[in-house]
Structure formats: structure tokens, C-alpha cells
Design a protein that fits this description.
Elements: E1 2-7, H1 12-21, E2 27-33, H2 42-45, E3 57-58, H3 62-68, E4 71-74, H4 81-88, E5 94-97, H5 106-113, E6 124-125, E7 139-141, H6 145-159, E8 163-172, H7 187-190, E9 195-196, H8 205-215, E10 222-228, E11 235-243, H9 249-259, E12 266-267, E13 283-290, E14 295-302, H10 306-320
Parallel strand pairs: 1-2, 1-4, 2-3, 4-5, 5-7, 6-7, 8-10, 12-13
Antiparallel strand pairs: 8-11, 9-10, 11-14, 13-14
Helix pairs in contact: 1-10, 6-8
Length: about 325
Amino acid sequence: MIKAGIIGASGYTGGELLRLLVNHPDVKPELATSRSLAGKPVAGTHRHLEGFLDLRYENPDPEEIRARCDVVFVAVPHGTAMNYVPELLDDNTKVIDLSADYRLETSVFEKVYDLNHADPRTAVYGLVELHPEAAKEQLVANPGCFPTGAILSAAPLAAAGLIDMAIFDSKTGISGAGISPSGTSHYPNIAENIIPYKLTAHRHRAEIVQELNRLDGNLRNISFTPHVIPTIRGILTTAHIFTKEPLSTGDVQALYEEFYRDKPFVRLPGVPSLTAVRGSNFCDIGFEADAENNRVVVLSAIDNLVKGASGQAIQNMNLMFGLEETRGLWIPATAP
């Protein structure tokens, strides 16, 4: 049985990790940390886990965490994980970081996040569909939620060298803002409203650029704008991809079917829906070609807390421990 620990377990990501891990047949949730809640029951914060989990929050030192855990999920704010990870890694303990600290090259990270990196090291970018080599690693950088949907929506076209320009427009549920209340998440501000933000300079653009450039080193024209919408979970991304040659919808269908062959968590159902992925680890992708304008409209839908965070982290964990990537994750969405 794999013993798992979660650092920063009191937030939405930590709660979702615990929800999925309590039913994973090969994992035992061993510890959940929180400095401010140490000693209090985890189910007191995550009420949906009442009766499933008898853990209490702890605040152990890294040596104890290593001794007790085979895998540690680090779910702390950007700029903080880099102070934990070096003390957690050893030959016996694997680490999956859900912050941005190891997703980007150090120089890019420091520029984008305006921080000096305390632990510049290379980590595999844990988008399993593009980086199965995560299976061989002790440290994996779990992707951001927006980049997961955007990259998967465009990857087949990028890998074929067909993209001239890509414009990503993403709509996210309010849980993406985290568990702490804010002006944006205040009900009167978000209800019956759509809030665009960081129109040209969202930090997640760097991940999208990095990964699409790995598929096509000549791709330069990549734009991204996010919006918050009045729903709790999910990210719907609309990608306007201008291609170097006209394509039919059939051409695109064949390209995507081949690229995502044997990728169990990518589905091509037609026009995707947030309700069809809520609570699941699936990324649903649909598309339609506009040959007259050398454009393909690609839509992707994910649950930002599952495929966009905790589910994807468990998908990485499965590979790192030699399990089927679907282990503990092959569950349908909670539609409607």
C-alpha cells in the first residue's frame, strides 16, 4: 500500500486529493498537514469526507514526512513549494508539486513570477499525455489548470507543425481562485457575471508557450485570456487556431484520433460540456474547421480541480509507482 502525504491539505486541491485517494485501491492517506489547523480533524474542514477519513491535521518536520510517506503531494502557494521540496526528496520518497515552482525553466519562472528560485532544478512537466517519462521521476511538476486544457486542445496541431497562430479564451469556475474569499469570489460580484482578468499577461501563458514550443519550436504567436464565470468547477477553453493550410473537420478528426490514441483521459465527444467532466479526470475535446479562414475552433473541457490539479497529480503518481494511469481515477462525471 502506497502511503501518501499532502502538504497544505486544507484547501480545495488538498480536499480533492483526499476525496480521490480515500477510494484509491493502492493508496492510504497517511498524513495531511496544516500549520494553522494542526490537531483538528480533516473532516471538520472537508465535510464531504466525514465518515471516510479519520485523519487530523499535523505539522510534522520534513524528516518525519519522508519516514512516513512514499509519496508527498505539495499543495502550497507558488514560491513556497521550493522551500519544501528539497527537504522531502530522497531515494524512497517521491514528490508531486502542484504549485508552479518547477513547471518552468528557472529563468522563465523568475521572470514570470518575479521571484528568485531557491531550488533551481529540472522537473518533468507532468502532463501525462505529452510526458509519459514522468513515470521514471522522483519529482514531477503538476501542470496548471488553464494550461492543461489549452495545451491538450492544440497539441495535435502543434505536433504536426500546422499552427500559424493560436488564441486561447478560457472560462473558469470560481474554485480556481482558491478557498480564501476575495472580491472576485464574493457572490454579488460573480453571480450572473463574467469577469475577464489579466487579459494579455496571465502567468499560465508561459506554460502554454513552453509546451507547445516543445512540439513545434517555430511556433510564436500564442495568446491567452482567462475569465471567471459563475460556476464552481470547470474550465472551458475555446482555441482559435489559425493554420498554415486549410483543413477540413475530417482532417482534424483524423489527426486528433491518432494523437490521442491510447490516451484514456482524452475524449473526443463533439462539442464538450463542463457537466460531462465535473468530478472526473477527463479532458473532452471538440472541434470544427473553418477552411475559408484557415482556422480550426477547438474546445476543451476539464474539471479544474481534477484533471486541472488533483486528479492529474494522482495520474502522475500512478505512473511513478508503476500502476495503470487510470487506477483510482476511472470514474464518470457527476452530471448534471
